[in-house]
């Protein structure tokens, strides 16, 4: 008798897929078994071909809501082909997993608490009433607790919590929704919470004085709590009170960086923010990202929460613990910011939390479940009703990108791409799938560099990758990721392929929009160019494998290099000096009169800086759009010192928000080494003149942004016409700015071209590794 061996690949582990197979098979009176087999689910049926085909169709229709089938392969085998240890019976069973097969299925991300579990923790008659680690097959932790595959409880950190008799009965009952729910537990057998005081001593609370209730009482009094969650730890404080926010800023040395908040429900969010239908959908989704929303007219949180910005990052509770926190407060929202030393990864180990957050947190609410893969909150923003990922992490990772339909892709090689240096993710690409990691961070910090290496090992384990055929990295020779790439190239005895920063941006844009070639605008802070200068305002052609720089912003001198990013008044001085509109002494007087406080050493620095620019001593060259926006921000006295990434341009966007558009700055163009460039010096001169004329700062800020947008758009349109290419895209961190994105889109579409932007990837550096992986494998293929 022939047996049907069915191999199912996709998101089919940790989503209740095997229990669903079991129920479907029994409803159709099928005999056989199902099990996890490495990275796939194996189903063996003892039945006729027509019945097997019917089973497959029924299974597709009854697939669990969070499962995703990529492929189903059916192989007819003899009884002798079955493993000897497997017994043939006339029933259908779920049997023990095996790790022998290596396919392409993946573990799903951590999922927000489902409605059924939420009802349980709110039901006084339920045995899981107010239990903060409730989970089932449809929700709860996955990626953050798994240690190896196949996805079974024994291979997760839940293995440290043996089932009580009631949970064991649920787990083994095919009719129960917790049948083979690997993260299932209850108060009698699962993880527990403890509250520690400021001296890191356990407070010894019980069921009557539970740790959550006591912790929230402290929050209500203005204390700062470190709360360990699913993928890491948050620092939590009131959003309505100045005192705890100022205290938190001082302790973290984050004087201006905006804090995200968590609010109880959508109704509460709508009291302080504008929420579109698309934003509502994202807030309520199983991914539960932070969504950047515009403040509404009733917004009344502390002015220190998101200083000088018109928007705020908001998320809804995604774990049982988060939901229970809001049972004990009348506060509309709490700050929920990642608990980490600036520049280092979020903390996950209890001893580390108690030690490193001493003096930062007042109290600590910690649990005893181990976190294997730390995972920051994801952040998204809608610009003109189009989704844009700012950070793609919890809720989305490790779901892979399916690249199988790309003609240029080399499916025969396994690739590791390491990203740039800031906002790093890495990518493992194999068998037509690209697994982009969770947010890693800035790898110029040693602890984050270690985190990168730890995470690569974990992802290799989960994807069953033992070695690589290619290592890919940024073209910048001094990045820590470049050094790591060379080390790993030696380890795996494989080529290391550097990829130009903006070329990687463009490749991701092509992937996201299923196009083979395009013209794209790359506008960001910095990317190492092939000529050794700092690019960041580029018009580039790419067919994914290759690229060509066609136009750019005007190259500007960057005195002192990176110090000009921290103190952008130095860039303003350089750009105005380059304009030749002002005499040197006249410019010095203007800088002394209007902007002296923005220089570290005031008038003396200004005098020496102009000499430095004139003599080209320690002066880099940049075409960065970010540096232009920063300079406009300085000119308008919006921001004179950058204390967090993107601060100056973000505050400029907020100043310009709601402008009427009464002022127009006409972009002008010229040639630089035969390359068309936008004259950014003239834009800054025009802005200075408008300031002198007494025009409104808001209107000038808006006009400056639009001049840069339309200038880049015109250069791209000219390139598109010259090459006969209809698709023109926009990428880079500058295109998180809604006004700039809309102005660019409007200009390009009015000229008859198709405007494309990121959909399921980051416009910023968070998706660079994805582009590196695709380009490097395609180059080897070609």
TrEMBL record:
Pathway(s) where this gene product acts: Protein modification; [NiFe] hydrogenase maturation
Record domain YrdC-like: where: 209-395
Domain Acylphosphatase-like: 3-96
Catalytic activity as recorded in UniProt: C-terminal L-cysteinyl-[HypE protein] + carbamoyl phosphate + ATP + H2O = C-terminal S-carboxamide-L-cysteinyl-[HypE protein] + AMP + phosphate + diphosphate + H(+)
EC code(s) of this entry: 6.2.-.-
InterPro entries the record matches: Acylphosphatase-like_dom, Acylphosphatase-like_dom_sf, Acylphosphatase_CS, Carbamoyltrans_HypF-like, Carbamoyltransferase_HypF, DHBP_synth_RibB-like_a/b_dom, HypF_C, HypF_C_2
PROSITE patterns membership: ACYLPHOSPHATASE_1, ACYLPHOSPHATASE_3, YRDC
GO terms assigned for molecular function: carboxyl- or carbamoyltransferase activity; double-stranded RNA binding; ligase activity; zinc ion binding
Swiss-Prot/TrEMBL keywords: Ligase, Metal-binding, Transferase, Zinc, Zinc-finger
GO process terms (BP): protein maturation
Protein family according to the UniProt entry: Belongs to the carbamoyltransferase HypF family.
Protein name per the record: Carbamoyltransferase HypF
């Amino acid at each position: 008798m022939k047996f049907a061996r069915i191999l199912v690949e996709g998101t089919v582990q940790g989503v209740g897929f095997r229990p669903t197979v079991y129920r479907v098979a029994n409803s159709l009176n099928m005999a056989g078994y199902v099990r996890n087999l490495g990275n796939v689910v194996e189903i063996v049926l003892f039945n006729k071909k027509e019945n097997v085909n019917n089973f497959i169709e029924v299974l597709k229709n009854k697939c669990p809501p969070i499962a995703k089938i990529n492929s189903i392969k059916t192989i007819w085998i003899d009884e002798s082909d079955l493993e000897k240890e497997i017994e043939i019976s006339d029933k259908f069973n779920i049997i023990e997993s095996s790790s022998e097969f290596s396919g392409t299925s993946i573990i799903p991300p951590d999922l927000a608490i489902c409605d059924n579990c939420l009802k349980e923790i709110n039901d006084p008659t339920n045995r899981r009433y107010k239990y903060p680690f409730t989970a089932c097959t449809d929700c709860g932790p996955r990626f953050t607790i798994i240690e190896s595959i196949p996805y079974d409880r024994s291979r997760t950190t839940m293995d440290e919590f043996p089932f009580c008799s009631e949970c064991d009965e649920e787990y083994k009952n095919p009719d129960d929704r917790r049948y083979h729910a690997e993260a299932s537990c209850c108060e009698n057998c699962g993880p527990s919470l403890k509250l520690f005081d400021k001296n890191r001593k356990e407070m010894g609370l019980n069921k009557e004085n539970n740790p959550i209730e006591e912790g929230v009482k402290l929050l209500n009094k203005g204390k700062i709590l470190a709360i360990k969650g699913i993928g890491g730890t948050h620092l939590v404080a009131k959003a309505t009170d100045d005192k705890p926010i100022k205290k938190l800023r001082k302790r973290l040395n984050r004087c201006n960086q905006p804090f995200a908040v968590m609010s109880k429900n959508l109704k509460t969010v709508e009291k302080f923010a504008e929420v579109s239908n698309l934003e509502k959908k994202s807030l309520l989704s199983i991914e539960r990202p932070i969504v950047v929303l515009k403040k509404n007219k009733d917004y009344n949180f502390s002015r220190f929460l998101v200083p000088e910005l018109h928007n705020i990052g908001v998320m809804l509770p995604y774990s049982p613990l988060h939901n229970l926190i809001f049972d004990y407060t009348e506060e509309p929202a709490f700050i929920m910011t990642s608990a980490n030393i600036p520049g280092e990864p979020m903390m996950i180990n209890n001893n580390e939390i108690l030690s490193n957050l001493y003096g930062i947190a007042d109290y600590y609410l910690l649990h005893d479940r181990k976190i294997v893969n730390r995972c920051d909150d994801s952040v998204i923003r809608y610009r003109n009703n189009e989704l844009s990922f700012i950070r793609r992490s919890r809720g989305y990772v490790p779901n892979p990108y399916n690249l199988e339909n790309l003609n240029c892709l080399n499916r025969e090689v396994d690739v590791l791409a390491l990203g740039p240096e800031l906002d790093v993710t890495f990518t493992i690409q194999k068998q037509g799938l690209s697994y982009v990691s969770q947010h890693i961070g800035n790898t110029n910090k040693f602890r984050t560099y270690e985190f990168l290496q730890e995470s690569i090992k974990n992802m290799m384990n989960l994807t069953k990758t033992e070695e690589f055929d290619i290592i890919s990295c940024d073209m910048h020779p001094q990045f820590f990721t470049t050094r790591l790439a060379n080390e790993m190239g030696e380890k795996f005895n494989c080529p290391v392929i550097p990829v130009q920063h903006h070329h990687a941006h463009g490749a991701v844009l092509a992937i996201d929009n299923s196009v083979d070639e395009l013209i794209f605008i790359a506008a960001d802070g910095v990317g190492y160019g092939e000529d050794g200068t700092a690019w960041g305002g580029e018009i580039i052609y790419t067919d994914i494998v290759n690229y060509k720089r066609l136009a750019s912003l005007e190259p500007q001198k960057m005195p002192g290099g990176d110090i000009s990013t921290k103190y952008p008044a130095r860039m303003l001085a350089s750009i105005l000096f380059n304009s030749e509109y002002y005499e040197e002494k006249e410019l010095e007087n203007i800088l002394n009169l209007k902007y002296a406080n923005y220089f570290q050493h005031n008038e003396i620095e200004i005098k020496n800086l102009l000499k430095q620019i004139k003599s080209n001593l320690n002066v880099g060259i940049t075409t960065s759009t970010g540096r232009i926006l920063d300079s406009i921000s300085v000119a308008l006295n919006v921001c004179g010192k950058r204390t967090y990434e993107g601060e100056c341009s973000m505050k400029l966007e907020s100043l310009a928000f709601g402008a009427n558009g009464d002022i127009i700055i006409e972009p002008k163009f010229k040639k630089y080494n035969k390359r068309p460039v936008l004259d950014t010096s003239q834009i800054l001169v025009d802005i200075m003149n408008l300031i002198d004329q007494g025009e409104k700062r808001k209107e000038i800020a808006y006009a400056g942004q639009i001049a840069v947008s339309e200038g880049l758009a015109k250069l791209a349109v000219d390139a598109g016409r010259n090459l006969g290419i209809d698709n023109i895209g926009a990428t880079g961190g500058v295109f998180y700015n809604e006004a700039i994105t809309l102005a660019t889109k409007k200009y390009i579409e009015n000229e008859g071209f198709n405007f494309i932007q990121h959909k399921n990837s980051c416009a910023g550096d968070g998706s660079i590794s994805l582009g590196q992986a695709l380009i490097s494998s395609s180059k080897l293929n070609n």
